[in-house]
Amino acid sequence: MASQIAFIDGVGGKRYMRGRLIRHFQSKGQQVHCFDYAPSRQSVDEIRAQLRDFLRQVAAQGEFHAIGYSFGGVLLRLALADLEAEGIRPVKVALLASPLTAMRLAMRLRHWRLYRWMSGECGQFAAQQALMAQVPLPGVPTACVYGTWPWLGVFGCFFGNRIGHDGMVAVDEAMAPQHGHLRAFPVAASHAFIPSNARALDALHGWFEGSGR
Questions:
Q1: What own/partner pairs with CB < 8 Å and gap ≥ 24 does 208-212 have?
Q2: What span, in angstroms and rounded, lies between the C-alpha atoms of 88 and 92?
Q3: 86-90, 137-141, 152-156: which range is least confident on average?
Q4: Which pTM was predicted?
């Protein structure tokens, strides 16, 4: 099992928010490297370049697994595609509540001034199916760990409970039917809290360890 975890956060996420995730993997003997960014000030291309450098630095220290949370999973997939020619790749990838297709919520909010200010180009990217469809899956074993607890988050305000979701990302976005070959780990957690959810953390560790759930 690789002794490092590269954690790529979602829009607005910061290392200080991920104490429980960091402690969980540290207790398993793994070092966690956190990548966060400033979507309101950086373009997708700028973040992508910064993430490539981050992954190079992690890879220089040895084998690693990678977790991409929310839009961080999209950025992770973009950066890994860029690094393929350099032979830099994680042993395994986990996409944590990360959309594989354009997000209904992003499409609904994309013209809202506050949303545009907070999420920048990342938020607009997530709203465009043409862009999201071009983001390749990693060329290593990949699993989707996604939430099914709909009660905390703004998704329900616009779409109710007609479809499964975690409050922000719909189940069919996080585990798109066309990607049914991926390992899937649904957990009863809401989007904002899934990085610290005990069942989600156990699912992540189990996937990396090779034991499944």
A1: 208/1, 208/2, 208/5, 208/65, 208/91, 208/92, 208/94, 209/1, 210/1, 212/183
A2: 12
A3: 152-156
A4: 0.95
